[in-house]
Amino acid sequence: MENLQDNNRFGTEFSQELRYIQSAEKTGNMGKVRVCARRLVGFAILHLFGTEYGKDALAILRNLQTVSFSAEINTLADSLLLGERDRLEGKLLNENPLETAQKIITLLERYHNNTEQ
Asked: Which of 1, 93, 114 is nearest to 48 (CA)?
């Protein structure tokens, strides 16, 4: 899997979000890590597909839950949307939001590259 920190292919906002997520991980702020991971997916999708799936990270992830890219992407998007309210309801939160975001982005890039050919 390609490491997201190794490039700037999704623009400066994406790169800035990576810095935010690294800072949040260092301080143990998992809520901010989740938010940043969602935004990373949002920026990547806006770069790859434009506004077809929404204009903000939450709308995009909600759409990914139902769009037929793959069942894996649907499941990963679902897990990335879980937050503190869900934890309080007894649901298990995603333990590694950055890794999940990275998986989603990698899968979407493959999909995008295959549809361009």
From this structure: 114
Q: What is the pLDDT of residues 38-88, one digit of tens each?
A: 889 888 888 888 877 677 777 777 777 777 678 888 888 888 888 878 878
78 by Cβ neighbours in 10 Å (0-12 / 13-18 / 19+) ranks as middle
Residue 63: burial class (beta carbons within 10 Å; 0-12, 13-18, 19+): middle
DSSP state of 91: P
- Please list the alpha-helical segments (H only) found in the chain: 12-27, 30-49, 57-64, 71-81, 84-88, 97-116
